What does this fold into?
Amino acid sequence: MTHLLITLTMALFHLVGPVPADLGVHNGALSPCPSPAHCARANWAVADPEAALAALLPVIEATPRTQVLEQGDGYLHATATSALFGFVDDLELYADSTHGVLQARSMSRLGDSDLGVNGQRLTDLQQVLP
It folds into this structure.
């Protein structure tokens, strides 16, 4: 009974939110952030954007509560879920070989502030770039 009560309570707090409509690559770029309070965006200059994306894939896959949903054509979309309340963030990476950058965007689906989580996520990924 206690296990069922805990499961039901956690289900009530699982705050997924709608999938953002602006995911993906549009005119050769990831979408800009609608607000810096719950979104982070970066362009990392790299020698080989495709190789940089490939190098980050196992790091993302090994990150707890993170799931890769789409991968291909130099693009990756993953979700990261917070441990306590189950807030979902969308992480996107795009290997922009034309400009020699790996574009990155991480955005919360719900809330007015992410308390810096999305910016920290991008900082952590940038630190492991080859």
The first strand starts at residue 25 and ends at 26. Strands lie at 25-26, 29-30, 39-45, 66-72, 75-81, 88-96, 101-108. Helices lie at 2-13, 49-62, 117-127.
